């Protein structure tokens, strides 16, 4: 069977994969195969990332459990662990990720879609597009959160902010809530800190902190964000 490790991009998905790999030796997969890890030496080993060797249909039909990362909107009834983060921090981090890793042609596409009235600021315009647009695969931040947390879905949701504060507790609670069968004996008491991850791979593991948006999201963009995502933010208890 598949258990989705789902999230909107830059919401703690990779950090959760690191945790279950380091704590329990659980290897995970990704529907994207995460080719970026090939460019960042050592990341795949820390994350516990595995290349997929069978189809998703075979994974679903198997008695073995496969943990698979996705940012896509849900399309089946498989159980899921959903990572959610303050949408402002997710979008700020995602905008930096696009600037760091996406190819130049994609960056030009963003630039051509949105023109600033007050001069071009690539980061701000990418962030603006992420706020107001809905990706056909991921949806907007609000759509992603809403779709994965419908009452009809068997999903356990973890807040990124809680995962950073008490990682082992959050992982154990998720596994117990989904009644996942298997040997989950601790194999390792050592966990790389976010600071260590940042020092080794600074572009991918940027900060791992909350409320970075206060320094990087203009008042105009904050108001735009609340206009588009305020209802879901309030439902989640973010202010």
From TrEMBL:
Coiled coil: none annotated. GO terms for molecular function: sulfotransferase activity. InterPro entries: P-loop_NTPase, Sulfotransferase_dom. It comes from Coleofasciculus chthonoplastes PCC 7420. Residues 3-237 form the Sulfotransferase domain. Keywords: Transferase. Gene3D superfamilies: P-loop containing nucleotide triphosphate hydrolases. This is Sulfotransferase domain superfamily. Belongs to the sulfotransferase 1 family. The keyword ATP-binding does not apply.
